Amino acid sequence: MNVGFVATALATAFTIIDPIGMIPLTLGATATDTAERRNRIVDQAVLVAGLVMLFMGVVGRELLNALGITLPAFMIAGGILLFLIAVDMLFARPTGAKSTEAEEREAAENENPAVFPLAVPMIAGPGTIASVLLLVNLAHGDRLGLLVIALAYGTALGATWACMRASVLLLRVIGKTGIHVTTRLLGIILGALAVQYVLNGLTASPLFRR
C-alpha cells in the first residue's frame, strides 16, 4: 500500500463529505431545535451515515459484479458524478447529488431530520457512496487498503461530527464567506480527483489498451 493511495483516500473522503459545508445544512435542518436536541440529531445522523457507507463498502463490489458492471466503467461514471459535484461546490450552489428542492421541502416538515436529510443524502449521498465504491475497487481486496479507506472515512466523519456539533459557534467564527471559500477550495481538489478517476478508468479499459 503506497502513500499515494492513503492521500487519495483522505482527500476523497474529506472533499466529498465536506465537513465545513455541513455547518449551514445542520443549522438549517435544526433551526427550531434546542442545542441539546441538535446534538442528539447530529449524533444520530453521523452514526446512520457511517453505517450506510460501511454497508455499501462491504456489499458494493459484489453488487457491481452481479450487475456485470466493470471497474473501468464504474470509475468513469463515478468520476463524472464527482466532477459534477465539484462544479457545484466551485460555484457554491446546492447540488442535486446531495438533495433536491423537493427533499428539502419534505425535510422542513420532518420532525427528526437525523436520518433524512442529514444522514442521507447530505452526508452519505450518491456522491459519497460512489467514492466509497471507487476506492474499495481500487484496493482490489487488499486488507490494508480497505483499512485505510475505513480510517479515511472514519476521520472525515469525525471531523463532520465536530463541525456539526459546533455549527453555531463555527458559523460565527468562520462566517458564510469562510464556508464558501473552503467549499470552493475542496471543490477544486475534488474536481482534480474526479478527472483522475476518469483517466484511470479509460486507461484500465480494454478499448483504450494497445
| Strand segment tally | 0
For the sheet with most strands, the description reads: none
Order of helices and strands: HHHHHHHHH
How would you describe the shape? globular
How does CATH name the architecture? Up-down Bundle
Question: What is the top-level CATH class?
Answer: Mainly Alpha
- First-last Cα distance: 28 Å
Strand pairing plus helix content: what structural class? mainly alpha
- Average pLDDT confidence is 87
Question: According to CATH, what is the topology?
Answer: Growth Hormone, Chain: A
Oligomer: single chain
Number of helices: 9
Present the secondary structure layout.
Blueprint: H1 3-17, H2 22-29, H3 35-67, H4 71-90, H5 101-108, H6 114-123, H7 126-139, H8 143-165, H9 167-204
Helix pairs in contact: 1-7, 1-8, 1-9, 2-6, 2-9, 3-6, 3-7, 3-8, 4-7, 4-9, 7-8
Structure description:
- This protein is mostly helical and 210 residues long.
- It has one domain: Growth Hormone, Chain: A (Up-down Bundle), CATH 1.20.1250.
- The chain has nine helices and no strands.
- Helix 1 (3-17) packs parallel to helix 8 and helix 2 packs across helix 9 (167-204).
- It is globular, with a radius of gyration of 17 Å.
- The two termini are 28 Å apart.
Characteristic terms for this protein:
mainly alpha, Growth Hormone, Chain: A
Summary?
The protein is mainly α. The protein contains 9 helices and no strands.
